[in-house]
Design brief:
By secondary structure, the protein is mostly helical. It is built from 13 helices and 2 strands, in the order αααββαααααααααα. A two-stranded antiparallel sheet has the order 1-2. Helix 2 packs antiparallel against helix 3, helix 6 (135-161) packs parallel to helix 10 (213-239) and helix 8 crosses helix 13. The protein starts with a helix and ends with a helix. It comes from Citrus sinensis. This is Aa trans domain-containing protein.
């Protein structure tokens, strides 16, 4: 949802090229991890790092994954809050779907809606012990992401045909030194968009045929790249210079076509549900890595009920508080994308290969 704003800063042509380039680099870095996993006979990402750099390296990797995943889940919850209860961006209030449907009440506030979502959606989904249990919700989430792309593309194409929108800037506009340095604020978003390295081993370990993992990775990255390019292009084409950090916040007004209000609601609700269904996948590896960091020599967390529920409750509490106090997704991306995400996705795999 931050990619259209990213491409707006970089310009359409460099922005789309960067999305493809980072996807290719991601596939290469995952290939490095899998190659050296087999060489070191390791069944986890942290095991490969420990083989190359010892216990200190493994601890640092766990810290990076925890920071990255915490940041991602805070971003997810912020966007869900934006969809349900609205958001203030650049001094302007963008209404959420519950505000538009029912008006402003205590139960349509951001805090209340996120609390209800946590209790009745997230907690049941994050209580599964195996990532395999999330396969159906994961598949549904992909379908909902495609719904967003199809509607956004359809609206943009219709408005392009009737001549009511123009092509966005093809190259970045650099008027002064500050605008040049602002280009670098886009890279954390691009890096974060492809981070999945911590999920590779848990999924491979549950496959009946582990040799399938290479084609699974390639298919997933190709699908993601296609969705990212379409979202960025059509989102920027539709909203132009008015594109916000979270493009979903743009879908709160008249799109200039028939059934605009209905399409606004379908886009926001479908993507909000998409994030709710993606949330447990990211949480799964977060819990696994935090447990590995805090209890490196204990039995697997899936077999210890007290530890499982204590770690789960502590993490959900932190994410809930973060989502209510972090001002925007751009702020969260800047921190996690420039530190933990780039380490997990690119620095560690390259360092392992060099070692």
């Amino acid at each position: 949802m931050a990619l259209p704003a990213t491409v707006k800063e970089l310009g359409l042509i460099p922005g789309l090229i960067m999305i493809v380039l980072v996807g290719w680099l991601t596939e290469s870095s995952i290939d490095m991890i899998m190659r050296f996993s087999r060489a070191s006979k390791s069944a986890t990402y942290s095991g490969v790092v420990a083989d190359a750099f010892g216990g200190a390296g493994r601890t640092l990797l766990h810290v990076c994954i925890v920071v990255n995943n915490l940041g991602m889940l805070v971003v997810y919850m912020i966007i869900i809050g934006d969809v349900l209860s609205g958001a203030w961006l650049n001094g302007v209030h963008h209404s959420g779907v519950t505000e538009e449907w029912f008006g402003q009440h205590w139960w349509t506030t951001r805090f209340t809606l996120l609390l209800l979502t946590t209790l009745f959606v997230f907690l049941p989904l994050i209580s599964f012990r195996r990532v395999d249990s999330l396969r159906y919700t994961s598949a549904l989430s992909v379908g909902l992401a495609i719904v967003f792309v199809v509607i956004t593309a359809g609206v943009a194409i219709v408005k392009t045909i009737d001549g009511s929108i123009s092509m966005p800037c093809l190259l970045p506009e650099i008027s002064k030194q500050a605008s040049f340095w602002k280009l670098f604020t886009t890279f954390p978003v691009l890096v974060t968009a492809y981070i999945c390295h911590h999920n590779i081993h848990p999924i491979e370990n549950e496959l009946k045929d582990p040799t399938q993992i290479k084609s699974i990775v390639r298919t997933s990255i190709t699908l993601c790249s296609t969705v990212y390019i379409a979202t960025s292009f059509f989102g920027l084409l539709l909203f132009g210079d008015r594109t916000l950090d979270d493009v979903l916040a743009n879908f709160d007004g008249d799109l200039g076509i028939p059934y605009s209000s209905l399409l606004d609601d379908v886009v926001r609700v479908s993507y909000g549900i998409h994030l709710m269904l993606v949330f447990p996948i990211v949480f799964f590896s977060l819990r696994l890595n935090l447990d590995g960091l805090l209890f490196p020599y204990a039995i697997p967390i899936a077999f210890d009920n007290r530890r499982f529920f204590a770690v789960t409750a502590a993490l959900m509490g932190f994410i809930f508080v973060g989502a209510n106090f972090v001002p925007s997704i751009w702020d969260a991306f800047q921190f996690t994308g420039a530190t933990a995400a780039v380490s997990v996705g690119f620095i560690f795999p390259a360092a392992i290969a060099l070692r």
